[in-house]
Amino acid sequence: MGSQTVRHELVTKHAQNVSKVRITVIYCFRALCCKGPPPARPEYDLVCIGLTGSGKTSLLSKLCSESPDSVVSTTGFSIKAVPFQNAILNVKELGGADNIRKYWSRYYQGSQGVIFVLDSASSEDDLETARNELHSALQHPQLCTLPFLILANHQDKPAARSVQEQKLEDLSEDISHLFLRAKGLVI
Ligand SMILES: Nc1nc2c(ncn2[C@@H]2O[C@H](COP(=O)(O)OP(=O)(O)OP(=O)(O)O)[C@@H](O)[C@H]2O)c(=O)[nH]1
Ligand SMILES: [Mg+2]
């Protein structure tokens, strides 16, 4: 084999290697940079209500994987985007203190669903107040047709009532609402 043939083979091999490297670099670049954004998840606007201390902020913080240590009573309202695999819930929590509750209905517009949080271990008086607020919310023109989640929270406490003991079923003839018992959301 002449030296010219050997040189020709080496040049050809080098050219092949260079093009292989080029293809790999382009492939990696495409994989890393041209993948495009993940498909958009649908977003829904929810309103979250319940008396002060019922655990609304704690629930939403937990769902957003945030530390429960930073939870303070909500003055006014706060909005959190809660990510789920197939959807994002933009939840607007309305503070539950006496002086804030009278303004709740001003913030209902545009809601597509309702979360009502109850303190299942509260005093009978507070439970009665919560029942009345729940009753008003269920009848409100902007909420009455929406999906309702009623969350019986504080179930980890010895004084917690069961859903039946909270006598909520008679609040509405349409019992298509979803009741959930939440236990130890924050501890
Ligand atoms: N043991 C127990 N404590 C809870 C539970 N949920 C909330 N808490 C505690 O109750 C207190 C009040 O909780 P928040 O989440 O601030 O209540 P909130 O409904 O957002 O109150 P406002 O913002 O004032 O309307 C906090 O100290 C929480 O740690 C629960 O399921 N069990
Ligand atoms: Mg709060």
TrEMBL record:
<keyword id="KW-0547">Nucleotide-binding</keyword>
<dbReference type="GO" id="GO:0003924">
    <property type="term" value="F:GTPase activity"/>
</dbReference>
<feature type="binding site">
    <location>
        <position position="57"/>
    </location>
    <ligand>
        <name>Mg(2+)</name>
    </ligand>
</feature>
<feature type="binding site">
    <location>
        <begin position="50"/>
        <end position="57"/>
    </location>
    <ligand>
        <name>GTP</name>
    </ligand>
</feature>
<comment type="similarity">
    <text>Belongs to the small GTPase superfamily. Arf family.</text>
</comment>
<dbReference type="InterPro" id="IPR006689">
    <property type="entry name" value="Small_GTPase_ARF/SAR"/>
</dbReference>
<dbReference type="GO" id="GO:0005525">
    <property type="term" value="F:GTP binding"/>
</dbReference>
<dbReference type="InterPro" id="IPR042292">
    <property type="entry name" value="ARL15"/>
</dbReference>
<feature type="binding site">
    <location>
        <position position="96"/>
    </location>
    <ligand>
        <name>GTP</name>
    </ligand>
</feature>
<dbReference type="GO" id="GO:0046872">
    <property type="term" value="F:metal ion binding"/>
</dbReference>
<keyword id="KW-0479">Metal-binding</keyword>
<dbReference type="Pfam" id="PF00025">
    <property type="entry name" value="Arf"/>
</dbReference>
<dbReference type="InterPro" id="IPR027417">
    <property type="entry name" value="P-loop_NTPase"/>
</dbReference>
<keyword id="KW-0342">GTP-binding</keyword>
<feature type="binding site">
    <location>
        <position position="74"/>
    </location>
    <ligand>
        <name>Mg(2+)</name>
    </ligand>
</feature>
<keyword id="KW-0460">Magnesium</keyword>
<protein>
    <recommendedName>
        <fullName>ADP-ribosylation factor-like protein 15</fullName>
    </recommendedName>
</protein>
<feature type="binding site">
    <location>
        <begin position="153"/>
        <end position="156"/>
    </location>
    <ligand>
        <name>GTP</name>
    </ligand>
</feature>
